[in-house]
Design goal:
With about 190 residues, the protein is an alpha/beta fold. It is built from 7 helices and 8 strands, in the order βααβαβαβαββαββα. Helix content is about 35%, strand content about 20%. A hairpin with a 2-residue loop joins strand 5 (about 125) and strand 6 (about 130-135).
C-alpha cells in the first residue's frame, strides 16, 4: 500500500495582506515551522484572504472537501474587533468542535501577555480534516504550537501540536511524526 503524506492547508486571514498592503508573515513562518518539526514530507495549499466570513467559509470548505487537506491552519481574525470573524466562520463549517485546542492556546499565551484572554481561537473537525485557528503573530504561532519552555528548553506547558498527530489518527488522517527534539507528539501507549 502506498504511503500517503499529509496535505496541509494554510490560510492567512487579513484584509491588509490580501490586498497587498503589507507582506504576510504568518504563512512563511508556519511553513518554516512545519518543515522543521515534521519528519516526513508534506503537501501544502496556501491562501491569503480578507476578513470576510463568506470568503473564509468558502476557503475552509474548498480546502477540506475539494483539495482534501487533512489539516487546515488559519492565522488572523480571532480577536474581538468587528472584522475578526474567523472563529464564527470556522464553527459554522465544522461537524465537531474541539474546544481543548483554543483553551490550550489561551493558556500558553497568558504566560506572555494578559490580552490572551481576548483571543477567540477555535478548532473543529470537518469530515476528515482538522481545522485550527492560530494567532496572527508569528511569535505567538510558534509559542502555541510548541508550548512554553523554561530557560533550559524543558517543557512547562505543552503546545497544541503535540495532540495533532493522534487527533488525525482518530479521524482517519495520515500518520505523522514530529522531531522530538522540537516537539514530542503524544499517542497513548499500545497495550
Amino acid at each position: 500500500m502506498e504511503e500517503r503524506f499529509i496535505k496541509i492547508g494554510l490560510i492567512s486571514i487579513s484584509d491588509r495582506a490580501s490586498s497587498g498592503e503589507y507582506e504576510d508573515e504568518g504563512l512563511p513562518n508556519l511553513k518554516n515551522w512545519l518543515a522543521k518539526v515534521l519528519i516526513k514530507p508534506f503537501n501544502l495549499e496556501e491562501e491569503i484572504i480578507p476578513d470576510e466570513i463568506e470568503v473564509i467559509k468558502k476557503t475552509l470548505i474548498t480546502l477540506s472537501d475539494e483539495k482534501k487537506c487533512d489539516l487546515i491552519l488559519t492565522t488572523g481574525g480571532t480577536g474581538p474587533a468587528k472584522r475578526d470573524v474567523t472563529p464564527e466562520a470556522t464553527l459554522s463549517v465544522g461537524d465537531k468542535e474541539m474546544p481543548g485546542f483554543g483553551e490550550q492556546m489561551r493558556q500558553i499565551s497568558l504566560n506572555f501577555v494578559p490580552t490572551a484572554i481576548l483571543s477567540r481561537q477555535v478548532a473543529v473537525i470537518r469530515n476528515t480534516a482538522l481545522i485550527i485557528n492560530l494567532p496572527g503573530q508569528p511569535k505567538a504561532i510558534v509559542e502555541t504550537l510548541e508550548g512554553l519552555k523554561d530557560a533550559k528548553g524543558s517543557l512547562i506547558v505543552p503546545g497544541i501540536f503535540a495532540a495533532v498527530p493522534y487527533c488525525l489518527d482518530l479521524i482517519g488522517g495520515p500518520y505523522i511524526e514530529t522531531k522530538e527534539t522540537i516537539l514530542k507528539s503524544f499517542r497513548p501507549k499500545k497495550k
